[in-house]
Every structure is written in C-alpha cells, then in structure tokens.
Amino acid sequence: MKRFNDKDAFLLFGEQINKILKCLYILEKNNKHNEGLSKFIDSIENLPSYDDMLDSFLQDEKDSDHLESILDKLGLRLPGDDDKK
Predict the structure, then answer these.
(1) Residue 55 three-state SS
(2) Do residues 11 and 50 touch, judged by C-beta distance below 8 A?
(3) Helices vs strands, H then E, count in the chain
(4) From CA 59, how far away is CA 57, in angstroms rounded?
(5) What is the pLDDT at residue 24?
(6) Confidence of residue 6 (pLDDT cuts 50, 70, 90)
C-alpha cells in the first residue's frame, strides 16, 4: 500500500471525492459502531471546495485592507519593498 507524506496536500475533484465517499459509506455500513470512521466521513462531506475557499478569500480581501496594509500591520514586507520605505 502506498503511503503519502502526512504534510502533503492534494487537490481532488468532486468526482474523485465522490468515489472515495462511496467506498467509505460501504465500509461504514459494515462497521456501524466505528465512531472515528463516521467522523472522518463527516469531515470529508463538509470540506469546502477550492473554488469556495478562493471566493471567500477574494471576498474577504474586498471587505478588508489591501495585502500591503495587512503585511505592514504584521511588520512584514514583500521582496523588493525595501526601496519603497
């Protein structure tokens, strides 16, 4: 069995997640008392899509300060900003 690095992130499409969920539903049906499995399925079912997260980020950006202002408040600078200050 291939093992992935725990810290790696992957982008899956809805079709792929649906296939994984179908397998997990069968596994859950045969292991009704496995609370950990049920919680894991629930966490997958409630994952926001990449598009939803991006839309949320863009909306937050419109509603708040620009990136430079946020970085300035944190005491951070973008590379090449040295000549601006």
Answers:
(1) helix
(2) yes
(3) 4, 0
(4) 5
(5) 97
(6) very high
